What does this fold into?
Amino acid sequence: MKIFPAIDIKDKKCVRLVKGDFDNKTEYELSPVEQARRYKDHGFKNLHIVDLDGALTGKTVNLDTIRDIVSKFNLKVEVGGGIRSIDSIKKYIDGGVEKVILGSAAIKDKNFLKDACEKFLNRIALGLDAKKWSFVNIWMERKF
It folds into this structure.
């Protein structure tokens, strides 16, 4: 079993949203880098990061912080949050991220998902949330 502790980043801080509400959040004292260090010190090998600023803007807002975490610790990092372009995926992969998690952009644009999977073989994950028992069906015509 692989365990992925998580760090959600908003305004360069570790946060936890309450039910996805950006106005209802807990901010933690440790920086994202220090939190990653604690996870590493506790023996974790994987890390899940969500760029909440990126989720709001569609840009790689916390890329420098994520690169810092990747460069300082020997962790397999997966990143999600507002990744809506091939260029954003490339920035994260070039920054040392192991996997990039695509969300709604992959559902809205099937060609984006297909291109991402072809260009970044085995480096793309799909993350979907379901609310009130409403699910999205995804059909992949070919295995990447």
Summary: Helices lie at 32-41, 52-57, 63-72, 86-94, 104-108, 110-119. The mean pLDDT is 89. The radius of gyration is 15 Å.
